[in-house]
Structure to design on (349 residues):
């Protein structure tokens, strides 16, 4: 007899996604079974789908690490019950490496993510460890909670970046990550918030969300304009949130960040593109600028959900497309095309 089946958007091969009927996951002892309600594809999943993660991804693959849902079944004593509304914290850490022993599980040497390394929220059901799930507080919808992971990356990064009241901040990259960081920054900084990108549509979204200025990096003299907007000194904090970039006459994102950060300022790196940085080391040393890196997040989901509950975040601000899971193959073809008015998509089941 054939076992229970479910609907899933499956990356069947690099660059090819199909909607398929697949076996439901069988939870291991101690795992929780969650029924997906919303998921939101991110740039990392698109790169994985294209085959850019190499041997890390085994096709066919079910991605989806940004997701919210409802508990279908849970083992006794785990603090969760059937019917609980939850959001997924996708991190799976080893608990043994130096980073984990230091409490920095997001920097685990053997870090895995539900929805990247193991099946995730592109399927109707997903089996996860109970410690990966956070209950939603009253007033936070499953739709908004699906955006908690990307906002959590912003909260974690800004903690590391040491944001101060009145800081002048430049965000290079107004995509999925950059726009959600901008949303968090509205609560944390009172100085200039300047968005930089090469896509006019995304720059317009940045202004809608709260950027005080928007600068197109593909235009001549972009760096000079950024210095002008920061009083000639440069920004206190420059955030690089570019996953990939187009070759233009301007410097690569990290090199631009160094050019427009002030003396003794901070550069916060989140983008995970494969491009070379192009840093001029003498300038870095003479500026005594600090370079800080940030990867995913840790322990911030309750704070993010509380900020949503209090109305201090706008989870849907960067969402440009709302679709059903049946439309996922078409969505990924749209992502393949690049600049087309797509920033962040929300997928419902």
């Amino acid at each position: 007899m054939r076992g229970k089946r479910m609907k899933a958007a499956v990356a069947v091969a690099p660059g090819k996604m199909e909607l398929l009927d697949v076996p439901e996951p069988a939870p291991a002892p101690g795992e929780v079974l969650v029924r997906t309600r919303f998921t939101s594809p991110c740039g990392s999943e698109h790169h994985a789908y294209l085959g850019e993660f190499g041997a890390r991804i085994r096709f066919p693959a079910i991605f989806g690490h940004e997701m919210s849902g409802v508990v279908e079944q849970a083992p006794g004593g785990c603090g969760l019950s059937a019917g609980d509304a939850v959001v997924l914290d996708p991190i799976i850490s080893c608990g043994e490496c130096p980073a984990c022993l230091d409490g920095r599980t997001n920097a685990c040497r053997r870090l895995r993510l539900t929805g990247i390394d193991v099946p995730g929220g592109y399927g109707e059901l997903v089996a996860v460890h109970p410690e990966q799930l956070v209950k939603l507080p009253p007033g936070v919808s499953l739709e908004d909670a699906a955006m908690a992971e990307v906002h959590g990356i912003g909260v974690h990064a800004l903690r590391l970046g040491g944001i101060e009241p009145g800081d002048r901040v430049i965000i290079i990259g107004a995509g999925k990550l950059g726009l959600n960081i901008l949303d968090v920054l509205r609560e944390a900084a009172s100085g200039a918030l300047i968005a930089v990108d090469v896509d006019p549509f995304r720059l317009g979204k940045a202004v809608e969300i709260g950027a005080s200025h928007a600068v197109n990096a593909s235009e001549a003299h972009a760096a000079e304009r950024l210095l002008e907007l920061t009083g000639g000194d440069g920004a206190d904090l420059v955030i690089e949130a570019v996953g990939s970039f187009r070759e233009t006459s301007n410097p690569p994102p990290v090199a631009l960040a160094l050019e427009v950060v002030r003396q003794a300022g901070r550069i916060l790196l989140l983008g995970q593109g494969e491009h070379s940085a192009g840093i001029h080391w003498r300038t870095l040393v003479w500026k005594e600028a600090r370079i800080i890196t940030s990867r995913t997040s840790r322990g911030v989901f309750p704070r993010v959900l509380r900020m949503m509950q209090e109305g201090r975040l706008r989870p849907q601000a960067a969402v440009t497309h709302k679709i059903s899971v049946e439309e996922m193959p078409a969505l990924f073809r749209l992502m393949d095309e690049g600049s087309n008015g797509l920033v962040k998509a929300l997928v419902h089941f």
Remarks:
- The chain is about 25% helix and 25% strand.
- The chain has two domains: 5-146+315-348, 151-293.
- The chain has a mean pLDDT of 92.
- The longest helix spans residues 148-161.
